[in-house]
Amino acid sequence: MIPAKFDYVRPSTVEEAVSALQQGGEDAKVLAGGQSLLPVLRLRLAAPSLVVDLGGLAELRQIGEDGDMIAIGAMAAHHDVMRNELVQRHVALLGQATETVADRQVRHRGTLGGALAHADPAGDLGPVALALDAEFVIAGSGGSRTVPASEFFVDYFTTAIGENEILTQVRFPKYTGWGSHYEKFNRTAQAWSMVAVAAALKIDGGTISEARVGLANMSSTPVRATGVEQALVGQAATADAVRAAAEHATEGTDAPSDADAAADYREHLARVLTGRAVLAAAG
Amino acid sequence: MTTTAEPTARELGRARIRKEDARLITGRTRWTDNITLNGMLHIAMVRSPVAHARITGINVDAAKQLTGVVAVYSGTDLDAEQSAIPCAWPINAEATPPRHVSIAVDTVRFAGEIVAVVVARDAATAKDATELVEVDYDDLPPVLDMEEALGDATVIHPDFGSNKWVTFPFDSVAAGATTGPTADEAIAAAEADPDSIVVKRRWRQQRLIPAFMEPRSVVVDPTGEQLTMWSSTQVPHVLRTMLGVSLGLPEHKLRVIAPDVGGGFGGKLQVTPEEILSTLVARRMAKPVKWTETRSESMLSGHHGRDQIQDVTVAAKRDGTVTALKIELTADMGAYFGLFTPAVPVFGAFIGPAIYKFPSYAFVCTDVFTNKTPTDAYRGAGRPEATFAVERIMEELATELGRDPLELREQNWIKNTEFPFTNAGGLTYDSGNYEAATEKATALFDYAGLRREQEERRRSNDPVQLGIGVSVFTEMCGLAPSRLLGALGAGAGGWEHAAIRMLPTGKVEVVTGSSAHGQGHETAWSQIVADRLGVPFEDVEVLHGDTQVSPKGMDTYGSRSLPVGGTAVVKCADRVIEKATKVAAHLLEAAEGDIEFQAGRFSVKGTDKGVSIQEVVFATFLSHNFPEGIEPSLDSEYTFDPENFSFPHGTHLAAMEVDTETGRVSIRKYVCVDDVGSVVNPLIVEGQVHGGLAQGIAQALFEEANYDEQGTLVNGTFVDYTLPSAADLPSFTTDRTETPATSNPLGVKGVGEAGTIASTPAIVNGVLDAIRHLGVKQVEMPCTAQRVWRAIQDAQGGAK
Amino acid sequence: MAQVRVTVDGVEYADDVEPRMLLVYYLRERLGKTGTVVGCDTSNCGACTVHLNGRSVKSCSVLAVQADGGEVLTIEGLARDGELHPVQKAFNECHALQCGYCTPGMIMAAVDLLGDNPDPDEQEVREGIEGNLCRCTGYQNIVRAVQSAAKAMQPGAERPAEAPAPVAGGN
Fold first, then answer.
1. Per the record's keyword annotation, is Membrane included, yes or no (chain A) (predicted)?
2. How far A22 CA lies from chain C's nearest CA (Å)?
3. Please, are residues B643 and B441 in contact by the beta-carbon 8 Å criterion?
4. Looking at CB atoms within 10 Å, which of B62, B85, B544, B602 has the fewest?
5. Do B615 and B703 belong to one domain?
């Protein structure tokens, strides 16, 4: 199927992009990798008047170290994120979750920033960003601002990015030496997660000293499983301790019921998969 | 005259790599949507978003005003010409099927029904204009549930007066297939007999979508003497005749071409509204037109498959001997009939007794209209449903009796010494050897070892439980003896046609009425002809799928091509040899009776005198000194009508793992040993089995077309229909036994549907076998993780 | 209209296109590269897979204008100098296709996978082509073909005996 007509610009600087969005008004859409947007346009579920393609902004593809953060340009393709050495060394959980995004072709085009800005609650990267306290750098006409992950995800497909703003960079603190695991549960390999759990642990002398756990598709936004994290800290990573902590997985969630799974099944899965993710993260 | 190579020693049974691949792996393909003609216009359909409504108004003005739009038609514009979509097999001789319009006129009866046709210069503009067509609907109550449809629900076709089309009964005693008590009598007797057992179950065959990979596409060129239609269809010949009959067009003024066709699985065994409307528009415009569907359009409006409620009853002695089988079906027709809609469930009637010696058998099918997309043939068409019913109930019987499921089956199946055997459905199975296939399968599977592991996992309360699913099936292929089709009221015969043209240089053109869309006929038919005529495989070209090239045929479906179409090719080749023998006798100056033909050479018995078939062909081309009475042509035709169906069978074993914590099901091991008779090309046969398995497994585990309460298809895209990918399926262990069919000279039985028919019950039996000890009695298809988990929860809750 | 300059199968093209034109329709309708096909509208089936700047992409989920300045390789440009690519040969030899509709995308996906992982195990192949749907083969022979091509592409590998189908038709 063919999208409805739209105008198209491919700015070469962030400033140009922001000003194009401003001029385009309400009906302007940002095109990053296009792997979510283009199917939506093809099905004519959206018909923007203007598409602002960020594909010309080479600087937004950079992945680098910035002090004690790993800074990833919003336009970095999934494939490049998961293969990046800095990511693998310092933000392994992000790499692991990114490897499960859709399929090879989609990972070649799709971008970290695009996926996070799309904010599908079933998306793989939201719970990672949330659990790992990522920061979102957002550019607007007045310059850039930084939003913590805890404030970034607002609702279904809604983030803190304003109407005429562009997500330019996502910054992750380093979790060097942490154990991590992304546990995804879906109907078929290609399907979105019914539930997924992102877990990272710091283990000192056999005891969990810090824990980060995020959940996908358990609410209208990704959810941070703080109850689980608190219950894990100070525990040895034994099956029993982890299972007990995982019982807290549904705290603060508001699991949806849909054709894929009813809420009670999602809640059950969240507990089981949290246990599995944490145990796998503990090695 | 040239020959490129010596004929190969043995063509039949050889794993030839396929000829047709050369174009398919290089992109040199001829899909219908590739076709571009000068002045070609593009069609897009406006489809009803509602399931059941009166159309109170259509405004096409805005659409017509869009630049690039050539015409917009509503139902009233086209109604006088559109006639009706044909139903070739209504089953019910008493009534006229409700008119199946291509474009709705005053009422829509399923979401997806066409309500307006847009014609534009390009496809994008046509699509844009569809969004400008305004249709006013006055909603009627959607009738979605079959049982409600049979109750006091709104009548979908007021002219017909009922949502029940027909009840089709089969009784083995009435049909003369068995003597003694009827199934009802035998079941009643068993219920009263403490030494007998009766097991009754109800299952659902969910609604499925064929999901061929190539979306349907139609190009119609009305210029020239014959109106030419290219269509992504399985049935160019049927389509030509039906177009003629339905639209009142002279058949000789129609040419239908099925170029490369990207899969069908029954889904392209149809005469579609889009084909009719494209024809009407092309005639009005006097210009070529093209319609190509999107995937979501395909899922919504192409016919669906299955969708039955099955009530199955088996009666048996406590020693395991079965005494009666009764299958009661309620089958969802959807809103209208397609080509075979009412016949599909009935097709299972005769094969219901399957491999077993049921002394009495009854089948009854009630065909019901609902406000959903019409159903029709989908891979297996009637036989997967029947096989599921019988293989699931045999499993339930084994469970109730505490017997090993394979052992109970063997106790009741037809022994290899008992063929030919007439089953309680009245079919005569010519051959079979269930013992041999089962022995091979159990050995490959390590049946005993897996049973031990299953015990161990149960004992240790392993969170991942193991189940073994069994399905020992037979089916009927080789559609079909024309006299049987006639007796059942079908509107067509079951023959197939072939022609062979011997070209002057010794090359051969084989024209077949079978219409391949992935089955590899070009390769297999070349092997058959190379074998029969002793010409090199490379020297044979197989022509098909164009009524101008191949004027006669019944096309490809129901695993009929090789047993029927392949046999026609064999018989046709024999006619070529017969004719060539006369010429050879003349050339060799010998009596015709003294000529022998072997491996491409005619020779005089007892001498070293001989000529090659290529020499005979060339001499015939020259025919310089032919005596009177020898026709200067070796070209031949043959139309073959089978005397019987063919009956592939096999034993399928599935080791299923169920993660009891999440409900996740996975296939640990799948072994099948199929007996499809003699094999022309084992590579192709294996490929058909693999693909068949994937579709049968997809029914068991992944796929279902879901409607909401308004009658909207809610998962009509590839995002949510969850077709399995490579990452969702295992590798299968496949093997064969070869018990030749006796009903055709090749000894072949057909293989296209076997894997699909057998695997669904094997998988479901395996899932249940893994968790039955937890108290689970049933999991509906598809056995998703959520369904399995919930079944375990419910069973455990019930136990508390 | 927007301008697109793109090299496809080694030939450079420049065209004015509507911004909404998808790369796959540009290939099929403007360049006549009908070897690449459309199988769905949700970027699931992968039938339209081509390589853009050396990486596999679904050409139904890329705008033609996004390919501006880029290099596209389609199934039609895969064979070189009349010699089939080892993956094409392996698909033929292993009977990895039936109707052939998914095949161009499947082959392009497999070539991309092998460029990344020259010796994948069965699971890696299955996951590597999870973005391509096939309804005919049950995938088993596709997996076999990809692994067989991997072997054939190892340095010093010998070709199997049976000749593959010829590249050009009408031979």
1. no
2. 20
3. no
4. B62
5. no
Of C56, C66, C127, the CB nearest to A34: C66
Whether B729 and chain A come into contact, CB under 8 Å, resolves to no
Cβ atoms C143, C72 nearer than 8 A: no
Residue C22 at interface with chain A, using a CB cutoff of 8 Å: yes
The topology (CATH level 3) of A7-53 is 3.30.43
Same domain, B111 and B99: yes
Phi-psi domain of B286 (left: phi exceeds 0; alpha: psi -120 through 50; beta: other)? left
C154 close to A (CB below 8 A) = no
Handedness of CA A40, A44, A46, A47 (dihedral sign): positive
Mark out the alpha helices in chain C (DSSP H runs). 23-25, 86-93, 103-116, 122-128, 140-153
Looking at residue B3, what is its pLDDT?
Answer: 44
DSSP 8-state class, residue B52:
S
Q: For B751-798, write each residue's pLDDT tens digit.
A: 999 999 999 999 999 999 999 999 999 999 999 999 999 999 999 985
Domain residue spans of chain A? 7-53, 67-171, 183-281
Partner-chain contact B520 C18, CB within 8 Å: no
Helix axis angle for B785-799 and A263-281, nearest 10°, is 100
- By DSSP bridging, strand A195-204 and strand A207-216 are antiparallel
Closest CA to B675 of B437, B514, B418, B368: B437
What are the backbone angles phi and psi of residue A265, rounded to the nearest 5°? -70, -40
Q: What DSSP designation does C63 have? A: B
- Please identify which residue in the block is written with the tokens 């024999």: B574
For strand B289-292 and strand B361-369, is the pairing parallel, antiparallel, or unpaired? unpaired
pLDDT the model gives residue B229: 98
CB contact under 8 A, C76 and B686: no
- For chain C, list the domains and their CATH numbers: 2-77 (3.10.20.30), 86-153 (1.10.150.120)
Amino acid found at B520: G
Residue C66 is nearest to which of A7, A55, A190, comparing CB atoms? A55
pLDDT tens-place string over residues B470-507: 999 999 999 899 999 998 888 889 999 999 999 999 99
Q: Which of B213, B517, B694 sits opposite C47 (nearest CB)?
A: B213
Residues 467-526 of B with CB under 8 A from C: 517-520
Beta carbons of B29 and C74 less than 8 Å apart: no
Burial class (CB in 10 A: 0-12, 13-18, 19+), B581: middle
Residue A1, pLDDT above cutoff 90: no
DSSP string, A149-190: HHHHEEETTEES--TT-EEEEEEEE--TT-EEEEEEE-SSTT
What ipTM was reported for this prediction? 0.97
Angle between helix axes B785-799 and B754-771 (nearest 10 degrees) is 30
The residue-averaged pLDDT of B104-109 equals 98
Q: Which of C61, C107, C108 to mutate to test the interface with A (most CBs of A within 10 A)?
A: C61
Half-sphere CA count of C10, side-chain side, radius 13 A: 7
Peptide bond into B480 cis (omega under 30): yes
Q: Is B87 in the same domain as B226?
A: yes
CATH architecture classification, A183-281: 2-Layer Sandwich (3.30)
The DSSP element (H or E) to which B273 belongs, if any, is helix B273-285
By the 8 A CB rule, do B533 and B573 touch?
yes
Rounded to two decimals, the pTM is 0.97
- A148-186 per-position pLDDT tens digit: 999 999 999 999 999 999 999 999 999 999 999 999 999
Determine contact, residues A4/A47, Cβ cutoff 8 Å: yes
Q: How confident is the model at residue B9 (pLDDT cuts 50, 70, 90)?
A: low
Decide if B26 and C88 are in contact by the 8 Å CB cutoff: yes
**Alpha-helical segments (H) within B402-494:** 405-412, 434-445, 447-459, 482-487
Neighbours of A148 (CB within 10 A): 13
